[in-house]
């Protein structure tokens, strides 16, 4: 009988071990790994497992198919907008996702194989090192849907690229190419899609051959300030986003996206 502990069997996330590496793959490829209720809940379980898994030292977070994560699933977003009390559950889940990612002491490497948008961008940016494929885009367009970027974007963007740039991109919702993101330090590396696996694997092997106790403790130390910021900002961010979920502008943002037209926001 194998001594290997079983991996969680999740509907929207695939998990696999490769030696001491644990691979977590967002697995809704037909929907570009857009986050619906099930993926929200599965993410918490997968990350919680990864945090305590005694048989892995490095984690790779990636997406199945051609996207990392296209953000929120539009049908799911609209359902919440018309039933805003349902968002309260996801607000708690979003807080747990951010907290767990910051608590994991193992290096978490993002293999950003395609677009990372909204919560998808937050997931990528909360990883320790990001390898992004050329052609991918990253951004947090909450405001384009009349929403507050309250589920982690306000925590991590400024820490990666500084407050002035973070405000520019969070207040406009602009998407950046992987090349631009690497140029300004939002992601670590922009590589060709053909080289992505080799670059990620080589970096993970470098970590796995290192002094893991020292590596983990160094990560914990460098995350202390991020955890302090998350503690200070997440409750307020979720509260502001919960208010914006109930706004007329949010419904207009959804309608505009469905109808492929510019939104006509009215400020309430």
Question: Can you walk through the features of this model?
Answer:
The protein is α/β, with parallel strands linked by helices. Helices cover 50% and strands 14% of the residues. The strands form two sheets. It has a six-stranded mixed beta sheet with strand order 1-2-3-4-6-9, with helices on both faces. The longest helix has 34 residues, at 212-245. The protein is globular, with a radius of gyration of 18 Å. The mean pLDDT is 95.
Give a count of the beta strands, DSSP E runs of length 2 or more.
Answer: 9
- Sketch the topology as an H/E string, one letter per element: EEHEHHEEHEEHHEHEHHH
Low-confidence runs of at least 5 consecutive residues? none
What sort of overall outline do the alpha carbons produce when their principal axes are compared?
globular
Number of helices: 10
Topology:
Elements: E1 13-18, E2 21-26, H1 37-52, E3 58-63, H2 74-82, H3 87-103, E4 108-112, E5 116-117, H4 119-125, E6 129-133, E7 137-139, H5 153-161, H6 163-172, E8 176-177, H7 178-183, E9 189-191, H8 196-208, H9 212-245, H10 248-259
Parallel strand pairs: 2-3, 3-4, 4-6, 5-7, 6-9
Antiparallel strand pairs: 1-2, 7-8
Task: Quickly describe the structure.
It contains ten helices and nine strands. It has helices at about 35-50, 75-80, 85-105, 120-125, 155-160, 165-170, 180-185, 195-210, 210-245, 250-260, and strands spanning about 15-20, 20-25, 60-65, 110, 115, 130-135, 135-140, 175, 190.
């Amino acid at each position: 009988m194998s001594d290997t502990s079983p991996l969680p069997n999740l509907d929207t996330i695939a998990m696999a071990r490769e030696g001491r590496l644990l691979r977590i793959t967002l697995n809704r490829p037909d929907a570009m790994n857009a986050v619906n209720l099930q993926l929200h809940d599965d993410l918490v379980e997968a990350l919680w497992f990864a945090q305590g898994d005694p048989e892995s030292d490095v984690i790779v977070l990636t997406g199945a198919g051609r996207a990392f994560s296209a953000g929120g699933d539009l049908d799911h977003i609209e359902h919440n907008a018309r039933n805003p009390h349902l968002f309260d559950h996801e607000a708690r889940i979003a807080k747990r996702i951010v907290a767990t990612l910051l608590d994991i002491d193992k290096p978490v490497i993002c293999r950003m194989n395609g677009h990372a948008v909204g919560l998808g961008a937050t997931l990528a940016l909360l990883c320790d090192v990001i390898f992004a494929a050329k052609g991918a885009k990253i951004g947090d367009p909450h405001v384009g849907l009349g929403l507050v970027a309250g589920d982690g974007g306000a925590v991590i963007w400024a820490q990666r690229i500084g407050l002035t740039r973070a405000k520019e991109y969070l207040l406009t919702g602009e998407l950046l190419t992987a090349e631009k993101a690497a140029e300004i330090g939002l992601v670590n590396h922009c590589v060709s899609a053909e080289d992505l696996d080799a670059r990620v694997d080589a970096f993970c092997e470098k970590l796995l051959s290192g002094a893991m106790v020292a590596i983990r403790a160094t990560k914990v130390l460098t995350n202390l300030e991020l955890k302090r910021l998350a503690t200070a900002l997440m409750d307020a961010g979720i509260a502001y986003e919960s208010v914006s979920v109930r706004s007329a502008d949010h419904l207009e943002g959804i309608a505009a996206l469905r109808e492929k037209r510019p939104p006509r926001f009215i400020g309430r």
